[in-house]
Amino acid sequence: MNPPNSTLEKSTILILDDEPMTRKVLQLCLNKEFDTIIKDDGMAGMSYIETGSPVDLVIADLNMPHLNGKEFLKVLRGSNLFGHIPVIILSGSEESNDRIQCLELGADDFMTKPFNPLEIIAKVKAVLRRVYK
What we know:
This protein has about 130 residues and is α/β, with parallel strands linked by helices. The chain contains five helices and five strands. Strands 2-1-3-4-5 form a five-stranded parallel β-sheet, with helices on both faces.
C-alpha cells in the first residue's frame, strides 16, 4: 500500500489535544518533516477527517472533551472510509490498562506525556513505514 500523499509531498499528521502547550510542542517538533493540522478535541478531529481532507496519521490525546481518545478510536475504526488511518495515542496516564485498552481498540502505538520529541518523530515515521509500505 502506498502512502496517500505522493513522495514529493509531506505526510499530513492530524494532532488532537485539548492542551495548548502540548499542541504547540507537537507542532514544533513535527512541522520540519510533516504537515500538521491541529484540532482541540476528538469531535473536531473526526469532523475534519470526514471532510475528506488528506490525513496520513493521527496523534490523539487520551483525555479530551467531546470525544476522548478511546471514543475517537471506536468511531474511526468503525468507519469503512477512514478506519485505515493509523493512530498514536498520547496520554499523561502511565496505567497499563489504558495502554492495553487503546491498543485493543485499534491504536497503532501509545506514548506517555511528557514525551521526548525525537521519540515521537521516530514513532510517527515507524508507523507510517509499517502502514504504507
